[in-house]
Amino acid sequence: MRRINFIFFLLILLNGCSVVKNDFKTATVSSEISESELISDIRSRNLTNSSFYIEKAEFSFIEEGKSEKLIGSIKFEAPEKFLVSLKTRAGIEVVRALLTKDTLLINDRVNRVHYYGYPGAFERKYGVSIYLLPLFLGDFLDEKAEVIKDSTIKEGRAQLQKNVYGKQVLYEIDVQNKKVKVSTVLKGYSGQDIKIFFSKFLAQAGLLFPERIEISDQEKNVILDISIQKILLPWKGALNLIPGSDYKRVQLL
Question: Is the pTM value of this prediction over 0.85?
């Protein structure tokens, strides 16, 4: 059960991408940039604006001083379809999951169980909508967010806060690079604030994104550390998930 809870938690906190070459050139940004211009530019650099395939990422989940590591891959078919596979370090697949706007399918290969349901069941159980997944990829959601501290724009930083799919999200923005540096989901998992830190930004196909993501709770305890090692961008493909043969079927309510 602990492993399955770990898998569900990973599905909440999936994020980030890396490349082997940094071809991004930082543009000079005027200190007088308007709020609408800033938000438009940030959204134009969202990773989920197009399909991609993270071929390899290392997930380190930390709980009560113990660390558990899995190797994962993430396929994204724009605009909102995810296929996730997680394996042990020995290469044995533990779980495969398909998430769309109206479907949630999970093959638990360890216990030979096929879970099925709707995104709402996921939110009721874990308190976070699956529509927030791009947020944990370093994307900016909701173009109508309001700038809280105007002065920070002139200092190269901006803070924006908005209700996103039922959760209050606070963004800290690097104005020069037009990317989210820190996202805070207020009262996220288990009722605690969740902070997501993005670093080691790299670029590919005109997009800038983080190679390293660190997620911590309001006590500053690291919950999940993610290192992305290989990505295909852009990528084309169709996503589907076939229930395992003779798997027990369990509906997520």
Answer: no
